[in-house]
Amino acid sequence: MKKITYLLIFLAYNWSFAQDFRFGKVSKEELQEVNNPKEPEANATILYLNQKTYYDYNADDGFVKITEVHKRIKIYNKDGFDWATEEIRVREDGSKREDVNSIKAITYNLVNGKIEETKLKKEGKFKENVSKYWAMEKFTMPNVSEGCVIEFEYRIKSPYISIDDMNLQFTIPVKELEISVRIPEFFNFNKYVNPRATYIPKINNSVVHRSETIVTKNREKHTSTNTNFSNNKWEFNENQTEIKLSDVPALKDEEYVSELNTYRTKLIWEYTYFKDVNGAITNYATTWDEVSKTIYDNTDFGAQLKQDNYYKDDIITLIKDVKTESEKINLIYDFVKSKVKWNNYYGYLAENGVRQAYKEGVGNVADINLMLTSMLRYANINANPMLISTRSNDVALYPGTGGFNYVVAAVEMPNDVLILDATDKYATANVLPIHAVNWQGRIVRESGSSAWYDLTPKEPVREVVLLNVKINEDLSIDGNVKHQMTSFAAKNFRSKYQNYNAEERLMAVEKDKGEIEVSNYEINDMDDVYQPISYTYDYNLKSGIEKIGDKVFITPMLFLALNENPFKQAEREYPIDYIYPFNDKYLVNIMLPEGYIVESMPESALIKFNDSDGEFKYIANENGKMLQFVISLDMKQHFILPDDYVGFKGFNQMMAEKQTEKIVLKKI
């Protein structure tokens, strides 16, 4: 009986201890924890997250939104150190600014059995201006080490009624999470859980009563001035949302997930209307047409398109002898690319203004692409800005200006639309930076109309590889490779290797190819973005052949073969997104050595996925001393849903097995 009593006392003690999340009450047990019991691979764990959003009231400012955040995080190893920096995005639009205050932060370490505390100092706090509308308040915790616990809290005061998305899931697990939102009945919101999320939380909604005492001041002037104060009680209801979660799983990345944030569990808020005490309603819910018009009417958007005096002479000179519209477009496009460098800031509103960006040679996305649109219009090209939400910004569930964070130029032609982004020198028409290829863009016309346009790439991206193989008498291999790429593949190659020197490029080619020595490596048309890019090299390979007795075994694709299936999970939570359709083709020519004949070789095969969504062809021919293979993968469907994952995994498994089949040569 005593043992049972002691056990109950022990369990009760640990339960009460585990629930003590008051600031500063970090325990030795938390510091001694070496991994997350449920997700031992995690580099860190959010032990506790509490976020409260409510609206204070005062006579001068009216309702002011307050958000209070309290986090406690356990860091297990050096890979978890990134969690020691907290980033808080704040709006700074003119005089309406959000303010971060009441920061309190401590790092806890266990030293010789005792808890040592290190408080955040002034030098650990800093601010980064993202644009003239946004800033990032940051602080980095001091004395961070493996096994430490960090804890911080802060308060955000905001004049804005709208509520930002609330993340309920992170790339590390969460042990305990509490969210509380109280909204006065005058402000009406729709709220949604991200429909793409796989972890769905329980949300508790209720109505609570609130009472405010309003102090009014009256002055009466007779023979002297008297000031009288009176208190009035104001009673109203608030809509309360509460979420309490335990053991929230980490948001885990998977192969070919283009943007993990798309699948994060989060609570999304839409401010729909304001209803005053007399019942009068002001609507804030809107349509995409109204959103587009609001953005166009902003002086940092539409007015920028009308300015042309600063570039007139340059454009007249540039296109004076040009005959065709396509030549005009390309000349102006390349001119802007070379004239103004992107400062890596997103935004659909001009930051410095197009005139200043032109003069200084640097600007944000809007500075550059609104300038491009304006120049194209000046050259009598039917160009309009296109608003986009980047992959990191996700896809909006409801109309609102926050649904966009990027702008490009769109040239509307009789049978086509050319989309141009001058922030990237290797981008071409309809071949945008990957971050901008996201669902749909909205064309905003000068006439006031607007329309959606599908950003999904239509044409397949083509890669062709010619692999020549000569097997020497000592069973080493000499040969050469020519690899040609178009469209996104060419752009990605140019972007990746633009700053590599010759040695770095050579090392990149030799990587993961076994005992290979590469020579005569050349890249053709690296800077001519209107041509496919190609590279060639010679190679000597000492590890490509396996000899057993009088037989020789060789894989036709050598170091280019898909050696294993990239998809190993039994199930998959998120879609596979290749971003664009593609066609890869390999032409392999193998010259046999003297004294050997073919005993067996892989047979031709055709493997399909979902009838025509994907097709793998393997064609093998023997022509005397020459073996020839044509191997191709044609993926018409770039987006594979989780329901199709098992079939697609099997498709890749069969491809990998086919590509690793061997030719058997016999000595004669």
UniProtKB/TrEMBL annotation:
One Pfam family this sequence matches: Transglut_core
InterPro entries in the record: Transglutaminase-like
Keyword Lipoprotein appears in the UniProt entry: no
Hydrolase found in the keyword field: no
Residues of the Transglutaminase-like domain: 320-386
Keywords, ordered alphabetically: Signal
Signal peptide: 1-18
Protein name (Swiss-Prot/TrEMBL): Transglutaminase superfamily protein
Organism: Gelidibacter sediminis
